[in-house]
Write a structure and sequence with these properties.
Length: 138
């Protein structure tokens, strides 16, 4: 029986990066979709305006949801403790801005009460968070 000679050749030492790139692109898409959702755990449908200032820094965010519950970040807070808890999170109470997110269905009286409570505690720099209008072509 004749022997066939086999050539051993070179082994596959190259790393195939195509699956790695595929996985990384899928993860990138997932993070791009979920990042805006992770902005805040409190569901607030803020009003829409034509002029919107982009939030570029980490600031204290006070939210009022549809049920008129008040939150600092993701933590629920009583209206009577709002000023003290906001001051505890601020570095400079006179210069730092507070962002106020309020659902558009909340009555103006509840919104005004929160603003008044913040002002009575010495916070003067309060910015209201809105979303840009979706401009439809006419």
């Amino acid at each position: 029986m004749p022997q066939l000679s086999r050539q051993t050749g070179t082994s596959l030492s190259d790393i195939n990066i195509v699956p790695f790139v595929d996985v990384m692109l899928v993860l990138l898409v997932i993070f791009m979709i979920t990042a805006p959702i992770l902005q805040s755990g409190i569901q607030v449908d803020v009003p829409k305006t034509k002029i919107v200032k982009e939030i570029s820094e980490s600031r204290v965010v006070v939210s009022i949801d549809r049920a008129q519950r008040i939150y600092i970040g993701d933590d629920a807070v009583n209206i009577h403790e709002l000023g003290n808890k906001v001051h505890a999170q601020l570095h400079n109470s006179q210069g730092d801005a507070i962002y106020l997110r309020c659902d558009k269905t909340v009555p103006f009286g509840a919104f005004a009460l929160v603003v008044d409570t913040l002002r009575q505690s010495g916070i003067q720099n309060i910015s209201v968070v809105t979303e840009p209008l979706d401009e439809a072509p006419r």
